[in-house]
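FW: tagging you since you asked about this chain on Friday. Here's the raw sequence from the shared folder, copied in full. Didn't touch anything.
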Amino acid sequence: MIITDQVFGHYAFCSYKALLKMNGKTGQISDYEKFQAQKEADFKRRAIRNLVQKYGATDFSGWENKADLVSHVESIIIGFRADFKDMMVEIDALQVSQKNFYSPSPIMVTYKNKIGKQEKLLVTFVTYVLANFLKQPITTAKFYHGEPPRFTKVSLEKYRTKVRSLLSEIRLLSKKEKAPKLQLNDNCSICEFRKECLDEATEKDDLSLLRGMRQKQIQTQNKKGIFTVTQYSYTFRPRRVKTPESITTGRYHALQALAIREQKVFIHQSPEIPSAKTKIYMDIETDPDRDFIYLIGLVAEDENGE
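HL: got it, structure written out here
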């Protein structure tokens, strides 16, 4: 099996989705996924056009040795493909300068304002394949992203060990020597396989059904022999508290599991709503990806009305 940047990207986000994709399965793509794909495609067209206008572009279709091309140009190479052993990647743009020939810089393009860990792992993988293809070290990689579009450099050294580990896991997966465990995550709500995975998790009574429970917390319970919500529900022990102030506001996943098992609503603490003559209600709407507050609504109420 060839490990492409697409396969690696799927695995970095969700190993179980990568397994389904590698087995040729397709799900029902949500409207949000379609919107994301269209937004990404539109942004890439504009971004590539901007990069070409700024740096110029090189057509490498006539070059027999594409690795040799890098030493003869000083511009942006669009859609450069590189392969090494069982890996192949396509790079959105490759910035090459004769002044800095020994460190060509791959550029990944995305509409996202925030570059997450998965994106950084992906660009590190792409750079790893490119460096071996060109037979020269590559010290920097960049993202061209966001609104307004800007460059963000990535520290490759930080993610290289993790990339090698993920590659080993993908190879084992392709040989059917190791199958990833189904675990629901934050991306499930917009994934094309959301129904299939939810049905399977429900049938297994999987711990990942408890939203908000981290992977490390699930692994800790698994080591204790606890794999289902029902099993976990029996671990809850109510605590006696002397004063209301000593009640913690943390989330009790075991209590949540107990509520699911017994189909009851448990009140962890009686809410205390402050009372005042003047009441203020506030609503704030944001775009989390841009750290941008675009609307604030405020209503003040007293004995005279709003």
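FW: The chain has two domains: 3-174, 205-237+251-262.
HL: agreed, and The radius of gyration is 25 Å.
FW: great, closing this out.
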